Amino acid sequence: MSPDILILAALCLPLLIAAGIAAAGRFPNVREGVTLVGSVILLGVVIALGVAVSNGQTPYLDLGAAAPGLSFTFKLEPLGALFALVASGLWIVNSFYSIGYMRGNRERNQTRFYICFAFAIFGALGVAMSGNLFTLFVFYEVLTLSTYPLVAHKGDAAAKRGGRIYLLTLLGTSIGLFLTAVMWTWTLAGQNLDFVQGGLLAGLNISPAVSTALLLLFAFGIGKAALMPVHFWLPNAMVAPTPVSALLHAVAVVKAGVFTVMKVSIFIFGEDLLQATPGREFILGVACFTMIVGSLVAMTKDNLKARLAYSTIAQLAYVTAGAMIANQAGFLGGSVQIAAHAVGKMTLFMCAGAIYVATGATNVSQMRGLGRRMPMVFIAFFIASLSIIGIPPMAGAWAKYELMQGAIDGGDTYVPWILIGSSLLNIAYLLPIPILALMPPPGSPEPKAFKRPGGAPALTVAAPVFTAALCIILFFLMGPLADFLAPSVGSSHAAAIVTGVQP
Q1: Can you tell me the distance from the alpha carbon of 13 to that of 17, in angstroms, rounded to the nearest whole number?
Q2: Terminal CA-to-CA distance of the chain, rounded, Å?
Q3: pLDDT tens digit string along 68-91?
Q4: Which of 143, 133, 1 is nearest to 59 (CA)?
Q5: What's the burial of 501, exposed, middle or buried (CB within 10 Å: 0-12/13-18/19+)?
Q6: What is 111-166 written as a DSSP string?
Q7: What is the rounded distance in angstroms from the CA atom of residue 156 to the CA atom of residue 135?
Q8: CA dist 121 → 251, 468, 478 (Å)
Q9: What pLDDT, on a 0 to 100 scale, did the predictor assign at position 316?
Q10: Three-state DSSP class for residue 311
């Protein structure tokens, strides 16, 4: 199958899966079978695309122009292939988990849930494979609209409020700021929005004031990246069921945000123009501020999902920081963080969901000693926490190493200290949870009893155990991953990672 047909297949499959889910809505086993079989086929298609990219091909598909200079084009490069692999691969895991969670918790409107999930994956893959800013913006909005029903899934007052904040914030930032930046770029580049290696705007005579203003519009207009102060939608979205939280934090939504930040930085601005843009240092400072403040707020939250939400805000800022460091190591560190944070944070949220389904517990203070009843869940939580902190041999260690190296190489010498401080705060708000659950102090009260026979459904335990294993596996795949990303982030540094020698 040719690469262009593979792109078309990857885009069409989620829509076909959504249609199949709708048709089988009255038959839960068939409905969920469609989800699982379809997601596996989709992953196979995305892997085939990834193989083509690794062989030096650039899969391309042109679906025509909506207006002069505004065409629906798709072009897959290594960074986009990585995001597509993360989204499609973790969809399978989340689907298995969702079956156990949604049934175990007797959630309503399960057919709608699975349909919207498929549309969300469609939006995420469209973002990943976009060949220009116009296409990316359209699919960015598709992702926003398809996930709104998921955020408001429960239908109560809190869910409706969280959904409104989610929708209004993301639409407001994207239409008010992101779209403005896209239109301005189109004007500056002579009615061109194509992603260009080295930067679409790099060769143009753009003043520092203009490039700064444009960068600020992109940074705060891409609301899904949750850079402070455009972050509040994310904690409010935690009213959604846990599989949706995993979608928001790991599979698609926030990853689409930071992926877009990275795409704009590498393929619209380019390394040289970013380095010459005064606003870069301001955005880097905001990212560092977000790392620390997000972590400090996380420490104050007793509700586990709220704590994890603010942790995500802090961790997403690593990707933005990598983009603003604006050199090969920074780009590589930010790109690796997309994958490392995806598997780590998905594990943490799925553990939170398993605990809730089994016991009804939602607060950290309720989990003391619970690890003795749910040891596999809390061991998975512990492993994922180590990855988020950045302790070897966990995937998250490589991202922080590369970001530190990039900051030192670029002269942003305060950034490594921010990263160290952030890691220490990560320890403070993450590690006490599994430690107190598995090794409670003598005399601790008995933990909450299981609210359902047998505790958490098997699928809600197996899924986070699997993703926790991925946190370790990805650490040892850094060499091949860096080599794969080399054409996007810069070949010299990536090659150095593979050989263990710094340029």
Answers
A1: 6
A2: 39
A3: 778 899 999 999 999 999 999 988
A4: 1
A5: exposed
A6: HHHHHHHHHHHHHHHHHHTBSBHHHHHHHHHHHHHHHHHHHTTT-SHHHHHHHHHH
A7: 35
A8: 8, 22, 26
A9: 92
A10: helix
> Nearest-CA neighbor of 349 among 456, 459, 248, 475?
248
Could you give the CA distance from residue 367 to residue 436 in angstroms, rounded to a whole number?
8
**Calpha distance 476→474 (Å, rounded):** 5
Residue 374 lies in a domain: yes
Note down the domain range covering 415.
279-503
Q: What is the pLDDT of residue 503?
A: 31
CA distance 324 to 276: 11
- Structure confidence by residue, pLDDT tens digits, 18-31: 999 999 888 889 98
pLDDT score of 491: 53
**Is the residue at 433 inside a domain?**
yes
Whether the pTM exceeds 0.90: the reply is yes
The residue among 10, 15, 131, 126 whose CA lies nearest residue 76 is 131
Contacts of 397 (CB under 8 A, 6+ apart): 387, 390, 391, 475
Nearest Cα neighbor of 315 from 403, 443, 240 is 403
User: Percent of the chain, pLDDT > 90?
Assistant: 61
In a domain? residue 110 = no
Q: How many CB atoms lie within 10 A of CB 44?
A: 15
Nearest to 412 by CA among 313, 333, 500, 482: 333
Check if the beta carbon of residue 311 is closer than 8 Å to that of residue 298. yes
Banded pLDDT at 496 (limits 50, 70, 90): very low
DSSP β-ladder status, 70-75 and 60-67:
antiparallel
Strand, coil or helix: 361 = coil
| Phi, psi of 63, rounded to the nearest 5 degrees | -100, 10
Residue 303 to residues 145, 164, 298, 367, 370, Cα–Cα distance (Å) = 27, 21, 10, 11, 16
Instruction: Examine residue 483 and state whether it is found in any structural domain, yes or no.
Output: yes
Q: Widest CA span of the chain, in angstroms? A: 72
Our count of domains for the chain comes to: 1
DSSP states along 390-416: T-TTSTHHHHHHHHHHHHHHHT-TTHH
